[in-house]
Each structure stands twice: as C-alpha cells, then as structure tokens.
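User: Round two. Same drill as before: sequence, then structure, for each protein.

Assistant: Same drill it is. First protein:
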Amino acid sequence: MRPVYMISGGITKFAKAHPDRDFRLMVKEAFDYALLDLPALTRAEIDGSVCSYFSDHFTRQVMAGAMVQDYLGLCPKPSRRVEGGGSTGGLCFQSAWESVASGRMEVCLAMGFETMSRVNTWKGNEFIALASDTNFDYPVGGFYSGYYAMMVRRHMHEFGTTVEQMARVAVKNHANALHNPYAQSPARLSVADVRSAPMVATPLTLLDICQMSDGAAVAILASEEMAQRLCSNPVRISGVGCGTDSMRMTDRPHGRVLLLPHESEEEYRDLKYPGVHSFRGGRSAAAQAYRMAGITNPAEELDFIELHDAYTSSEIQTYEDLGLCRYGEGGAFVDSGAPFLKNVEYGLNFSGEQRWPRIPVNPSGGLLACGHPVGATGLMQAVFAFWQLQGSIGKHLGDATLQQEGAQRGLIHSHAGTGTYITVSILEREP
C-alpha cells in the first residue's frame, strides 16, 4: 500500500428538508465547494468515485449513484456504490482510501447523500429498521430507539451510568453546533431540557436521539504525489479499521475483551464482554486503526474525535470502545469534562474526578446536532476533521470557536445498526 491523503472536502447544510434540491444537486453543491480549495485540480484528473447512500427507498430511485456520477460530469470513469447502514459514509471513505492506496487511482472522489425528508418520520424509521434482522427482530417491534434504550439500560445496570450523564452529552453537542452553520439543530440546552423532552424509548428522550436529515458531503483523496502537487496542506490518512458483529445481539458470543495496547486482562477480569453494553466491532475497528497509525494510548495521542452519536448513550458506549476510558467509566468520563471544549460555554459544572486528559469529542456537534443524512454523515465527519487539522475551521465556518489549536491527529468513527459495521479512520497533519 502507498500513502493516501485527503486534499479537500465540502458539505451542504444538513437540514430537516431541502425541498428545492434533489440528491444530485446537493452532491454537486458539496463537490463544487471542495473544488474551490483546489484550483489546480481538473475533472480530468479525478480518476473515479465511490458513492454512498443508505436507502433506495428515500430517493425512490435505484442506481442513484450512477445519476450523481453523470451529473458531476465524471462519466465514463469508474464508480461504485457503498452501503452499510449508519456506517455507509465511513465505509465510503475507506473504500476511496483503498482505491488510492492500491494504486488503482491517483485521485478518488468519495461522495455521499441522503434525502430522508421525502417520507414521514415513522416511515423513515421503518426503512432504517429494515437494517435489523427482518426475520426475528423487526417483526416484534425492532425499531432502533428500542434497541438503544435496551442497551443503555444494561449499561446503567452494569456500571451505574445515569440519565443526567447522557443529557450532558446532548448539552455538549448542541452547544458546539451553535458555532457550526452547517448544523441542523444548534441549541443552548440544559440537562433539565433534555430530560423533560418527550420520551421516545425509556430512558431516551427526543433530545437523546439524532434527527432524520437531508444533506450531502464529499471528500477528495489522493496519492502522495498528487497531494503535493494539488494541495498546500494535505492531511494523511494514517490508520483505518473496520469491525463487524452479528446483526442479532442474541447471537453474539461472550469472551475476552479485545485489549488495546494500554489495557490489561486484569482490569477486566470481572467484565462480561461484550454484553449489550458495548460494541465489539467498534473495539476491533479501533484496534486495527491504532495499530496502523502507531497509537498506543488514544486518550493521550489524539487531539479530537468525531464519533457516531446517533444516541447520547452510544456516544458514552463508544468512549469505552475507543479506549478513551475503561469499560464502565463512560459516564464518569462525561462528568470529568474531558470530552468538552475549553472555549464553549455549556452552563455545566464538572465535579467529576479529573483522571483523563481533555480530548474534545464531536466539536462539530455530531449527529445529535448536525443531523444524520445517513450516506453523508461519515463523510461530514471526515470534512470537519480535515478542516480541524488544516487549521481552517474559521475560514470554512466563519467562526473559529471550534478550532483546536495545534491539532495534529484526529479520529473519525462511523457506526451501523447495533454495531454490525463500524469504521475508524485516523487522520494526521504532516509535521
């Protein structure tokens, strides 16, 4: 394999609906924005693309990716569609990385979209629920909010996690999004606001859950030679990992914890793993990406993380899967203030034990506040990570509040189902 770099990216505003734009126009808007930062790049130098969108049902159009390829003027070059539930965008990003790393392409476009507003919310939830086992789980009420409510109930039972800790995640991400004009639902919230919102699936309220969205995002990846020629400050993709698990949680075996380099068997001797409180696929993806990037202690060696927070509870679970804290400590990690930004006002007091270095999680606002147009979400994370590492948040957002000064290395994390597919990618600024 050869080195791969991200050289540009673009996104549309994520919104409840974009009634004036179809999926092709949204992708073109993001693509055109990405090209503005690369005046030396011509369409002729883009060797092909990977397109991601979750469901044909939302567009009512099979082979929509082929239509986007045509609309961008990239025919007859290679293209393919990637789909993997909530992890669709993350899989697309890694598929584009593979195209360049293998030598097949010098420049590859990763593009993703979703137009979820074309159906009612209940219908959209039904389409998403088809990503569960339709023979066993779906017929007995298998909607995803129910799955995640069950999982966090177990987390609360095993580890003492509280609804207030979950609510703090919502407060954090919505407050971060106040400085992100691309976000769907920036808001100044309190813990009481989150807990008094309508209950969806106990203990998850409406503000514990991300929203259906319309939106698009693109990332342009290139070989080292092309990156140096086309971009003044490219960002290297130094590690990738992808983990999987059985779709039915009842089929998941128990066994030893998949250890990261800074962990020991002894500290988990009494833990039933993976249980329904954690995601074995996420731990596997993280271990692969860390090994490739040479990371031995993620909490100390990463500067920020953009992770898949479809639920406040899943953000807490993912802290543990990524090794930011030990299994069972995700709630305490929130209370310590470790995943919060220094220069954003949250209206919270952090009285927890300060055992971890500060590592901002979802400075963009994450899925909770940005929205979740499924095929675009993982690529949106890549774009925000790219801008962070370039030091260009102020340029692209018109507000530098979310910029992490001196950030050298970031992680993006994309998650499908109840952990059926999970991707982790590490991006680094060159010294």
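Second protein:
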Amino acid sequence: MVIPRIKERSARYFRETVNNRRHLHQYPELSFQEAKTAEFIAAKLTEYGISFTPNVAGHGIVAVIEGQNPTDKCIALRADIDALPLNEHTHLPYSSAHNGVMHACGHDAHTAMLLTAARILFEMKNHFNGTIKLIFQHAEEKLPGGALGMLAAGVLENPAVSCMIGLHVLPELESGKAGFRPGPFMASGDEINIRVHGKGGHAAMPDQINDTVLIASQIVVGLQQVVSRMAPPLVPTVLSFGRLIADGAHNVIPNEVLIQGTFRTFDENWRKKGKELIVNIAQQTAAAAGAIAEVTIDSGYPVLINDPHITTIATSAAAEFLGNENIVILDQRMTTEDFAWYSQKVPACFIRLGTGNASKGITAGLHTPTFDIDENSLETGSGLLAWIALKQLDN
C-alpha cells in the first residue's frame, strides 16, 4: 500500500512541484550566490512543517524528518540548487529573468522534486523507522564545489548518515524512466592551466624570439601521449583543451600564451600520476625551446562511486515503482559531479532521471541555452525519491 500512497501524494502535489520548479527556473542564481534560492527553499520547508538548518557552509540547507525510532538509521537525500552562467534561449513564459544566468542543468527540477519528496515523507513519518536528512546543496557547478563545505560542516553527522541518494535529470533518457549503474559511474575532473612564457617579438624575426605560439601548440600535441601512450589501457581517460589564447597579431608573437583544459579519469592513483606527467611534459617541452611553462592544476571532483549494495536496493525499488521496462542500466560518464565527495565518505547511489520527450520536442542537452524538461518527470522523480528513501531505511 506504500507505493500507491506515495504516487497519490506525488500526483496531488504535482502542480505545486511544477510551480516551484518554474519559480526557481525564472530566478536562477550562480554558485555561491544562491541567497534568494535558499530563502525560497526555507519558506517551503516552513510551510510544510519540516525543521531545517539554514546557511550551512554558505547557502546550503539541511532539513531533518524523524520517523518512529529515529535513532535506528539515517539516510540522506541530496539536491543541488545553483545555476549556470548561460543566456537562456527557450522563450518559455518562465524563462530566466536574470541575464546571463540559467538553470541549464536541471538543478531547479532537483530542488523542486526534493521539496515534494520531503513533504510526502514528512506526512508519512509515523509509518517508517529512522531519520531522513534532506540536503539542499549550493555551488555544485563551480570548484571546489559546495559539497566539500557541507561535509566540513558535518552534514553527515548528528545523526550519522549510513547511505546517501542523489538524483540528476538526463534529457537523453525518456521521461518516465530512470537509469542506474553500480560501481564507478562518473569521472574525476581537474582543470589544467598552462602559461607559456617566452620572448615575443616580430613574427618576421623568429631567430630573435621564443615562438610561444608554436611552443604552446607543441605542448597541446605532446600532451596527447598522456592518454594515447601513458594511460592504463583499461582506464577511461580524457585530456581535452578548450582554450588557447595567444593575444598577438598577424606579425606579432606574444610573450605569453594561455592553455586551458580538463583531465578526467576513473582511477584515483592514475589521476595523480597523470597530473604529474602533464606538468613534466609541458615544462620540458617549453624548456627545450628556451621558454618556461607555468602549470597549475586545480583539483576538481573525485570519481563518483555508486555503492553496489545501495545501488542494487535503489534499482530494485525503482523497478517496483516504475516497472522493469522503465529501468535502464547506464554506461559510465566522463562528466563530473561533486556528489562524488559524498560517495567517497558514505555508501551512495546517484540516479539519473529521464526528462526527455521527443514528441514534445524536448531533446536539448544539459548545459545548452535551449535545455528544458518534460515536467511530467517531476511527478515521477519526487515519488521515486520518497520510495527509494523508505526502501533504504528498510534495508
């Protein structure tokens, strides 16, 4: 009888879930700037009667729902709340009112679904044992990520969290479906910054300068061997460069060239070694040409690991809730997520919720200016979160 009860409530609160999502979508805020977003979440939790702690490590919020025998077990549900620096081009009635800021990664949907799941669970608190924490986390999109601050603030303690569930929209997956993968699921991600310093000058006098542009090009090409010849063959690895600034002219070689890129993999030991290789190759390539390469690597999120046991429970629960035909086993993804910090501390499962709908023309990818979701997925996701939380408590 629990599933029908949850489905009835998620359907009953569907219109409010949509309204909450649209409000958040219309008024997005960037990482570490989510003050109004946090105020909205706090107001809704207050309206639902759920106790919470605001301003956790910044704009984070932690709410607690105690069931019967609350000390039995504690599980956590997490949603991220920040937006991206992007101009929206959807032309929806609730398009972003903030120029250059957009919920293009679905965090508005995550927050709205967790609010509704919280409301459902609070109304059912007399029917389960244990405690459920609701973590509304700021700053997922920007290093070092809000998760680190919230961990330092003790969100996994008092009471201690035994497992954690996160959910993220996936437009490639049709609305009504959910995707899972046990084990390493999402890659680590580090930001590479290389500045090539040399003696610039007239492009017609190459013998009198260090050609910093050529050196930078050689560094980019040379670093490809980190993946092609040095990476363990069975460990997925990506090294990509998306920015190269040589601000000279047709006949001017600049004194400095900037190179920026990303290094991603699934093995923490290889990750450490790979970063050392990137530094050495860049520096040695520049030195061979009489220049200097200054290399800074900003360490990003670690590998996101879905605990096999917790993921099996979540997958089974989702199959009960959605039907086996709506469960998808996903491939590994080279994208990153700061939910990975939690997965390094406690057994965790990160779920992907289908939000695409080709018949409605809702197919745009994440982090694009035309991104949108099939809002029917909000009812699916809020109910699914509540049901999985109860199943994790039972286990």
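Residues 241 and 261 are 4 Å apart (CA to CA).

User: Perfect.
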